[in-house]
């Protein structure tokens, strides 16, 4: 039975005064597309990378990564909101963002409180739900610790974008496919929220076909409920880990490739410090990882991709968001250990995009006074219209070709795709100017 891979990257950060930056390192994670790297280069999903430092008190510190000349750049949530033009008059009030993750995070509430205090965000309304029972958390288990990083990123980043939205964090008892499916069944069966974020995935052909079919039926049911569903596209460029985990091969990830899901890729965002004014973006592809993308082998091109995807197969991703660790997001994360509460890390990965796109949709639902539901047809229609450059940043530079290391430390070269004008299998149709986009989502 396959485990899923988390899709998010993180990196600890130090304050301007004296906090040391720890060595970047990597941990192989099961399925989240986000994780923290501390010892050796990650074989799978090198998502989280740097420690920023510990904070105390109520002041908003300046971190080393925010200073000119820093080897690694980072943004706080307010800077990222400025870069993507997230309107302050919308908060997600009355909306519920659902997040599925695995194993749990004993310090998620404390971490969220630190993030809110440090960056001046209002308190969150967080519900943690264990549909199949609460598993014990082992701080010595790297897989579980990495998932706690994914949880911190998912919860804190979505709350920053939609601070008044309720967050239902649904915890699968493990990262096995069957357990993730059980959590999804609970979400859809209990009509939990208007938007769903999934920052995990695996190669399409590695999941048991019966589970994929069950997922498809649940995504269709979610669409009928008016639920918008997002998934991260992966952090290994045009590659996915092989089914036995020993190597890599060209593949897109599931569930991002499901035609009823909005797949979210990643860019490297350049914004001014300290105000966050947008400057430019390129496809994410560096030592920390690369935006997942390519063409499905399971699904034909959906109607909404006609005129955008020049292939008979479903193209991934649909949209993108800032996800490079170098230009990453400052997140509070204690690795599930109360002794570490107050630690701030730099996070990246496509995991950063899925929860923030879900939160943007919560803002859109609030503005529209109803659920927008399945978004892909509307997004692609806008990308072809006269307002395309008004609502999207079209990312036209970079690619997602990668060289990765297999289990024997041999290089594996995977030829990917270039970013370009319009949709591409690296950054999709681009990243949002949120205030502009929300004018056209009704």
Please tell me about this protein's structure.
Helices cover 23% and strands 26% of the residues. It has 442 residues and is an alpha/beta fold. It has a single domain, classed as Peptidase S8/S53 domain (Rossmann fold, 3-Layer(aba) Sandwich), CATH 3.40.50.200. The termini are far apart.
Largest sheet: 8 strands, mixed
* Oligomeric description of these chains: single chain
Structural class: alpha/beta
Count of DSSP-assigned helices: 9
Radius of gyration over alpha carbons?
19 Å
CATH architecture: 3-Layer(aba) Sandwich
Percent range of helical residues = 10-25%
CATH topology: Rossmann fold
Structural shape? globular
Strand content: 25-35%
The overall average pLDDT, rounded, is 89
Annotation, overall tally of beta strands: 27
- What is the terminal separation in angstroms? 41 Å
CATH-defined superfamily: Peptidase S8/S53 domain
Low-confidence stretches: 12-31, 34-49
Overall tally of structural domains: 1
The CATH top-level class label: Alpha Beta
């Amino acid at each position: 039975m396959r485990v899923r891979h988390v899709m998010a990257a993180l990196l600890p950060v130090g304050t301007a005064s004296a906090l040391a930056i720890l060595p970047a390192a990597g941990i192989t994670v099961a399925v989240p597309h986000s994780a923290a790297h501390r010892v050796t280069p990650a074989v799978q999903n090198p998502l989280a990378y740097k420690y920023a430092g510990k904070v105390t008190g109520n002041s908003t510190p300046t971190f080393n990564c925010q200073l000119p000349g820093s080897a690694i750049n980072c943004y706080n949530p307010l800077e990222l909101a400025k870069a993507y033009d997230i309107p302050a008059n919308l908060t997600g009030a009355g909306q519920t963002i659902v997040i599925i993750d695995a194993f749990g995070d004993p310090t998620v509430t404390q971490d969220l409180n630190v993030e809110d205090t440090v960056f001046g965000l209002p308190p969150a309304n967080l519900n943690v739900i264990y549909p199949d029972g609460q598993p014990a958390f082992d701080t010595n288990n790297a897989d579980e610790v990495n998932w706690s990083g994914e949880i911190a990123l998912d919860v804190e980043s979505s709350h920053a974008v939609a601070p008044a939205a309720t967050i239902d964090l649904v915890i699968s008892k493990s990262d096995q496919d069957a357990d993730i499916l059980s959590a999804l069944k609970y979400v859809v069966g209990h009509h939990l929220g208007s938007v769903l974020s999934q920052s995990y995935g695996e190669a399409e052909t590695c999941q048991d076909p019966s589970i994929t079919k069950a997922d498809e039926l649940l995504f269709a049911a979610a669409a009928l409920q008016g639920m918008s569903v997002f998934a991260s596209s992966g952090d290994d460029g045009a590659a996915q880990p092989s089914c036995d985990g020993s190597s890599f091969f060209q593949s897109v990830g599931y569930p991002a490739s499901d035609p009823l899901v909005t797949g979210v890729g990643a860019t490297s965002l350049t914004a001014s410090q300290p105000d966050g004014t947008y400057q430019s973006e390129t496809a994410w592809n560096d030592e920390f990882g690369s935006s997942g993308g390519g063409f499905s082998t399971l699904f034909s091109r959906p109607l909404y991709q006609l005129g955008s995807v020049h292939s008979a197969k479903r193209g991934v991703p649909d949209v993108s968001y800032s996800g490079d660790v170098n230009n990453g997001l400052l997140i509070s994360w204690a690795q599930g250990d109360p002794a570490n509460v107050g630690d701030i890390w730099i996070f990246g990965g496509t995991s950063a995009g899925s929860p923030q796109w879900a939160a943007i949709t919560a803002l859109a639902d609030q503005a529209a006074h109803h659920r927008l539901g399945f978004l892909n047809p509307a997004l692609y229609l806008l990308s072809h219209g006269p307002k395309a450059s008004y609502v999207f940043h079209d990312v036209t530079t970079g690619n997602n070709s990668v060289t990765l290391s297999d289990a024997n430390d041999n290089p594996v070269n995977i030829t990917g795709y270039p970013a370009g004008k319009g949709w591409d299998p690296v950054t999709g149709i681009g990243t949002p100017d949120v205030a502009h986009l929300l004018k056209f989502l009704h």
